[in-house]
Amino acid sequence: MPKAKSPVKPRPKTVKRLSYRQAMDYLQAKYKFRERGYGRKNDADRSGPYLDFWHWILATRPVQNGCDVTFSKYDLSLAAEKHANDKSPDNSWRVKIVEYILAEFGKGRERVVTFWVAW
Fold first, then answer.
1. What are the boundaries of each domain within the chain?
2. pLDDT at site 84
3. Reported confidence tier of residue 36, pLDDT bands at 50, 70, 90
4. Phi, psi (degrees; rounded to nearest 5) at 92
5. DSSP string, the chain
6. Would you state the pLDDT for residue 51?
7. Mean pLDDT of 39-65
8. Taking the model in full, what pTM does it have?
């Protein structure tokens, strides 16, 4: 009868993630938009509603300091939906930002990307 193998104790694995903040800074510079206050030219510009992509993320998924936030092509339909406390006249701006995220960072058929969120 063969001798049974001893169990192998698991070891920690390193997981590489993109920084959400660095990715958004890159996208804002490349595509010339503002994640916080989308549609406004600067902080003093008060014309139009205050559209905040980060607030939409907080409203649609659990986020805490030191967590992963994943986007995929399924977020395109989520971004187009109306949500509670949504003051946006139309949601195309959110869809556009999700499209930027997926075009630049998404991988595979589902165009998945996972970011590390920390503050």
1. 22-117
2. 62
3. confident
4. -60, -30
5. -PPPPPPPPP-------EEHHHHHHHHHHHHT--SEEET-SSTT---S--EEHHHHHHHHS---TTEEEEE-THHHHHHHS--TT---S-SHHHHHHHHHHHHHH-BTTTTBEEEEE--
6. 82
7. 83
8. 0.82
